[in-house]
Amino acid sequence: FPSHDNKGYPTHLLVNALEITELVEAQKIIHRSNERLKGLQLVDRAIIQGGLNEEPAELAAIRFLNQMVPCDELAIVLFDEEENKARIATRIVNNVEYSNDDIAISMDLFEDSNLILGKTFELNLIDYQENPLVTPLIGCGYKKALIVPMLVHGNNIGLLLLFAKEDNFFNREYVEISEEVANQIALSFYHFYNTT
Prior knowledge:
Helix content is 39%, strand content 28%. The protein has 196 residues and is of the alpha+beta class. The strands form 2 sheets. Strands 3, 4, 5, 6, 7, 8 and 9 form a 7-stranded antiparallel beta sheet that branches. α1 (21-49) packs antiparallel against α2 (57-68) and α1 packs parallel to α5. The longest helix is centred in the first third of the chain and has 29 residues, at 21-49. The model has no long low-confidence stretch (mean pLDDT 81).
């Protein structure tokens, strides 16, 4: 609103400003929550229908996870206790999908107490550089790994592995989303193996 002197010339201008930073941040949080819920519903539908467009439900889940947690690599590892092996079922590396790699890994490498207890945990990979599985990951530039157990009725059937080249990449939201998706993937595999 301009203010004028007695000759009609403007002397100063009054401006009314509204701080909307908090409102914009709240809208971003709501938008992100809606994206998260839509993705989880999509994965739920894929599990119930046994997949989407003839692709496995776990592929829909890992794609959604890659959108919500844009880390450098994700992998689904399934345990085969009869053969004492773990198998990489599906993975995404730099947005490229790989399925059924048939990479078998000895189960002995997965005997961490956190895994046995079914807890999610983060690894600083440099602390495990002597481990033959970790050395190539460090060579790719990965610094952190998030290991999320996939539990069904208290049994650990596999892992969801996420790798990042940034030190502080896995924030609380990323961990929560990863755990939600790991639960859905575990249900997908449980449903698949108990209906076929």
